[in-house]
Every structure is written in structure tokens, then in C-alpha cells.
Design brief:
- There is one protein chain.
- The protein is 28% helix and 23% strand.
- The protein is of the alpha/beta class and 480 residues long.
- The chain folds into two domains: 247 residues, Beta-lactamase, CATH 3.40.710.10; 216 residues, no CATH class.
- The chain starts with a strand and ends with a helix.
Length: 480
């Protein structure tokens, strides 16, 4: 027997001792689960059948910060036109121009310079240059395939220095991040730091007795100086730190220079970057904020093949990879526009209209969910998910989602519950925001669509909010 439950607002800690008169058992179980979460948390929950019939709703039309649930909207828009996007995709290329080596990025998210790289390797392009010449002047990283918009509006400044907020560029290498390994020394001695020379390291870490590690890394936006403070225990394992790259085109060119030198190529000049700016706001020939015109693509000395975008969609959703998601948004715009955030958003909005989402039930400033400006309603997420399930590519898209208790960002959740291996959903995590939306298989064997959003929890209680939502979803699965 199917029933419909609608509750427009949920108190921070609803009475959970016994059901109130008229409250169905399932709603009471959900209230109990959410009551165990942090006080004053704002919850939104919407559950429906695959046909879109509502089953349970809590604040379904309130707007919430979705965090990485944003990636569902980005990847669904890409999947809807995947053949055209794959056809338009181009790999990274390199050419020689009057003695300069120009490295051209064209939106490839997976270019690598790692040791042992086997696919999509910067080393392949370095080999091509070394086979042609033994002397070059400057090494230039060119990311003008997309305009120079390295962060979406609403990116928190403190996230810019982390691997989660690295710069977005058409020329991307090694996920636009670098690492440092901190190995403890003797008690009272500064630990050793092994890192790339791209950043200068100011090491102020102290080694102390024990196994603990409390290292703090600070880097101002635009700076190439990292200050390390804090402590590491004498018996602690080496700590690996991750740092973002603010100018990925410059970093890729810098790395290519090193690879050329390792191949015996003399580099006489500098490492530089070339970007495509947005047009001036007062330029009468363009719309306000539109990117400047892209120059024609030159012939390449060598170029790497574009990798299938469906594989990258799996990385985006399973691993919640922010950089790749923001690059995918720019790919959406480049297929019929400028490669800008605004044109990517226009493409996304057209698909949301096609999927039946109500205007105002969503708004996005980026493609990854790192922006604090993003908003969705639980109903909007469920509407999109039910529409996806009806598409010929819907099953393939669903397979990009993490599986509860098995892989991706859900590997450690729902273990030993009725939903282990039976929930397929996109996670989301940002300051005071947690999200989980996707599909679950109930005890009856019926597949349901859901979106569970939590916002405004006190500092340090985000994990408790996620646990409360997980218990609520398990209660729903066991009851239905």
C-alpha cells in the first residue's frame, strides 16, 4: 500500500519518544532518525517512485546549498549530448613557433606527468619536441581554449589553496595540484620536506614525541610561497600534503621545461603562460562579460588523443572530483559557445527546462559545487533524477554514482545496513552543508528516487548530520 506523507518543516529536535496522534509510523521513524542529528540543522527530504509519484516530503521546495550534488546536474547535462561532446573534444597539443615551444590545452582533464604514466602523458609531447630540436627559447603554456576564469563565483578564499579549490584551466596537468611529503626527524628537529621546486617551502614544523600529526599549510592566493607550521610526532608516518596550482598553464609549461631538459633539450628562455581574457565590459561589439575571441587553432607538432568523456564522468561522480566537473561545465559551453562559465550555465539551464525543473528551484555558479552561491530544492533533484531514469543513457549515468558501502565517496557509508550495495547516490560536502541524492532499492525490491539535504549545522557537526540522514534513509528502505 503506497502512501503520501508531506511535512513542510521539521523542528531541530522533534519529539521522538512516541508518535504523535495522526503521524504515520514511517514519518515517526524518519523524525526519530533526524532528531539524533545536530540541533538547529535544517533538513530537506523528498522521496518518490521512479514514475515521480511522491512518497515522503520534508521541506521539498526550500532551497539548500547542494555542495557536490551540483555534479549531478553538470554530468547529466553532458551525458544528454555526449556523442557531440566527444566528437568536439580535443587532446593537449604542442608546436614550435619561432624557437618557442607552445603547449596548448584544450580542456583535457586527465593529462599526466606522473612517473610510469601510460596514457595521456606530457612525456609523449616532450619526446616529440626532443625528436625535432635540441634547442628552444621559451616554453609557453597556452590555455586560451577557455577564457581565463580560474574560479567560479562563490569559491571560498580558504579553499583556493587546497586541492579542492585549484585553478580551472583549459591546460590542466596532474589535476592542477602538487604534493609534499613531510618525514619526521628527531625530537626537536625540523622534519624533512620533499616537494617540487615549483613552490618555495618555509618549513616551521617541529618534531615532537609521539605518533600524532598537526601540520598547518598556508599559502596566499597568487603566491608561490607555502608556510608550514605545527607538529609531527617522531613515530608518525610521513605526511603527504596537497597544494593547489593557481596558474595551471604556467605550471604545465614549467613541468614541460623540466621534461625537455631531462631529454637533453637546452631551454634558453623563460616559462610563461598565455591566457584569453574576458572582453571589457564597455566593448560595444560583445555582450558584457563575454570572452574575447579565440584565435584559430594552429597546426600541432604532436597532439594527444582525446579520452572518452564518459570515463571522466565516472571520475567526477565516484570521486567527487571538483576540477574535472568545472572543466566539464566549460566543455558544455564550448560545444556551442565560448567555453565560459556563463555559456555552460546556459546549456545546463536548457536541459533543466527540458527535464521539467521549475525555474528558481535551482541556481548554480559553478559545475562542481564548491561555490557557496549554489542552491537546489529536494524536489528539483528528484525531478532531474526521475527524468534521467527515463533517458536511453540513464542506466549508464547511474553507473557513475557511488555505491553504498562499496566504492567512491560512499565506500564507508551504510555498511551492514539494508542499503549496503542497494543505494546509488551522489554525495555532497561543504561547510555546514551535506547532501545525498540518487536511487535506493527498498526492502520490497522497488527502486525509489530521493534527495536528502542538510544545511546550517553547527561547526564540527557535519558528520552527525550525515549519519542522521543515513539512518532516515535506512528506515525508509526497511519500511517500503
Amino acid at each position: 500500500m503506497r502512501f503520501v506523507l508531506v511535512l513542510l518543516a521539521l523542528a531541530a529536535h522533534p519529539a521522538a519518544a512516541a508518535p504523535e496522534a495522526g503521524v504515520p509510523p514511517l514519518m515517526h521513524a524518519v523524525e526519530q532518525a533526524l532528531a539524533e542529528g545536530p540541533a538547529n540543522t535544517r533538513y530537506g527530504l523528498f522521496v518518490a517512485t521512479l514514475e515521480g509519484d511522491p512518497i515522503l516530503a520534508i521541506a521539498p521546495d526550500q532551497r539548500f546549498i547542494p555542495a557536490s550534488n551540483t555534479k549531478m546536474f553538470t554530468t547529466a547535462t553532458a551525458y544528454a549530448d555526449l556523442p557531440a561532446l566527444d566528437h568536439a573534444a580535443k587532446g593537449t597539443g604542442v608546436r614550435l613557433d619561432q624557437g618557442d615551444v607552445i603547449l596548448y590545452g584544450r580542456g583535457d582533464a586527465r593529462l599526466s606527468s606522473a612517473e610510469g604514466c601510460a596514457t595521456d602523458c606530457l612525456q609523449t609531447l616532450a619526446d616529440a619536441v626532443a625528436a625535432r630540436t635540441r634547442h628552444v627559447r621559451n616554453v609557453v603554456g597556452d590555455d586560451s581554449w577557455f577564457p581565463d576564469e580560474r574560479w567560479g563565483p562563490g569559491m571560498s578564499w580558504n579553499n583556493i589553496q587546497s586541492r579542492y579549490g585549484t585553478g580551472i584551466s583549459a591546460l590542466t596537468l596532474d589535476d592542477n595540484e602538487m604534493t609534499a611529503v613531510v618525514a619526521p626527524g628527531a625530537n626537536g628537529v625540523s622534519p624533512k620536506v620533499a616537494a617540487s621546486a615549483y613552490y618555495a617551502i618555509d618549513n616551521r614544523i617541529r618534531t615532537i614525541p609521539g605518533k600524532g600529526e598537526a601540520i598547518v599549510a598556508d599559502r596566499a592566493p597568487g603566491s608561490r610561497l607555502i608556510r608550514l607550521t605545527g607538529t609531527i610526532g617522531t613515530d608518525a608516518p610521513p605526511a603527504t600534503l596537497h597544494f593547489s596550482i593557481d596558474d595551471p598553464a604556467h605550471y604545465a609549461a614549467w613541468r614541460l621545461r623540466d621534461l625537455l631538459r631531462a631529454r637533453g633539450v637546452t631551454v634558453k628562455g623563460d616559462v610563461t603562460a598565455r591566457h584569453r581574457p574576458l572582453a571589457p565590459a564597455d566593448d560595444p561589439t560583445t555582450r558584457k562579460g563575454a570572452p574575447a575571441a579565440q584565435p584559430p587553432a594552429p597546426d600541432m607538432l604532436a597532439e594527444l588523443p582525446a579520452l572518452p568523456l564518459a570515463d571522466d564522468m565516472r571520475i567526477i561522480n565516484k570521486q567527487s572530483q571538483n576540477l574535472h566537473a568545472d572543466l566539464m561545465l566549460r566543455r558544455l559551453s564550448h560545444a556551442g559557445g565560448s567555453g565560459s562559465i556563463a555559456d555552460g550555465q546556459a546549456t545546463l539551464r536548457r536541459l533543466m527546462t527540458q527535464a521539467g525543473l521549475v525555474e528558481g528551484s535551482y541556481s548554480f555558479a559553478d559545475g562542481s559545487g564548491m561555490s557557496s552561491y549554489n542552491r537546489i530544492t529536494p524536489r528539483a533533484a528528484v525531478t532531474l533524477l526521475t527524468w534521467i531514469a527515463r533517458q536511453p543513457w540513464g542506466t549508464a549515468w547511474r553507473e557513475t554514482l557511488p555505491i553504498a558501502g562499496q566504492d567512491g565517496t560512499l565506500r564507508g557509508r551504510f555498511k551492514g545496513t539494508a542499503l549496503e550495495g542497494r543505494l546509488f547516490a551522489k554525495t555532497g560536502s561543504l561547510n555546514a552543508a551535506r547532501a545525498l541524492s540518487g536511487y535506493l532499492v527498498a526492502k520490497s525490491g522497488r527502486t525509489l528516487v530521493f534527495s536528502a539535504l542538510a544545511n546550517d549545522m553547527p561547526d564540527g557537526t557535519d558528520a552527525r548530520a550525515s549519519a542522521a540522514v543515513d539512518r532516515a534513509l535506512v528506515a525508509i528502505a526497511e519500511a517500503l
